[in-house]
């Protein structure tokens, strides 16, 4: 599995700035583009939700229930369709189907989890609240082949498949 996360490109300890963030996102799209061009993947999973939602934890512990390899997993907040569009476009350039995995965690739970992170991994509260305000449920119109909604409080899963495929 190819794991793509902008945080991976911020260094250790993570050092965030607008310039470093922009460069990290570009590295993500270059990594995805290379995987598509080299035909290293047959599917892309876009795992998104609030910072502190449990996306990375879910990928590490439960993703085998859904993710089929060879695949790339894009792990980032990506709250709205416009934020997910570029990854979907890159995958589409190589006819790679894209699957949405929405880790749907309440804001108060995400904030509490974020507060318990190591200091260099904490996201400012205002940033999480901003993402919460922007959050849109995924749709098939965006280009997803399948949509999964995960409620990490009870590890409940809902699933939908595009009837057009």
Task: Describe this entry's structure for a reader.
By secondary structure, this protein is an alpha/beta fold. The protein contains 5 helices and 6 strands; from the N terminus they run E-H-E-H-E-H-E-H-H-E-E. The chain has helices at residues 18-37, 55-62, 81-92, 107-115, 125-134; strands at residues 2-4, 43-48, 71-75, 98-103, 144-151, 156-161. The longest helix is centred in the N-terminal third of the chain and has 20 residues, at 18-37. It has a 6-stranded mixed β-sheet, sandwiched between helices. It is globular, with a radius of gyration of 15 Å. A hairpin with a 4-residue loop joins strand 5 and strand 6.
- Cα distance, first to last residue? 24 Å
SS elements, strand count: 6
Give the oligomer, counting copies of the same chain as homo and different chains as hetero: single chain
Q: Topology as H/E string?
A: EHEHEHEHHEE
Q: Strand order within the widest sheet?
A: 1-3-2-4-5-6
List the helices and strands and how they pair.
Blueprint (H helix, E strand, L loop, with lengths): L1 E3 L13 H20 L5 E6 L6 H8 L8 E5 L5 H12 L5 E6 L3 H9 L9 H10 L9 E8 L4 E6 L4
Parallel strand pairs: 1-3, 2-3, 2-4, 4-5
Antiparallel strand pairs: 5-6
Structural features:
6 strands, alpha/beta, 6-stranded mixed beta sheet, 36% helix, 5 helices, 165 residues
């Amino acid at each position: 599995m190819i794991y793509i996360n902008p945080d991976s490109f911020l260094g250790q300890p993570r050092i965030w700035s607008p310039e470093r963030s922009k460069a990290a996102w570009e590295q993500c799209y270059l990594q995805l583009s290379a995987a598509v061009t080299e035909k290293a993947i047959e599917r892309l999973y876009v795992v998104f939700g609030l910072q502190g939602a449990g996306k990375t934890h879910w990928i590490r512990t439960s993703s085998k229930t859904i993710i089929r390899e060879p695949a790339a997993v894009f792990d980032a907040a990506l709250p709205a369709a416009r934020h997910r569009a570029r990854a979907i476009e890159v995958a589409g350039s190589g006819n790679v189907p894209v699957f949405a995995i929405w880790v749907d965690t309440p804001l108060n739970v995400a904030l509490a989890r974020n507060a318990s992170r190591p200091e260099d991994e904490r996201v400012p509260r205002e940033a999480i609240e901003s993402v919460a305000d922007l959050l849109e449920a995924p749709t098939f119109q965006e280009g997803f082949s399948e949509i999964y909604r995960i409620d990490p409080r009870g590890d409940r899963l809902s699933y939908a498949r595009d009837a057009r495929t």
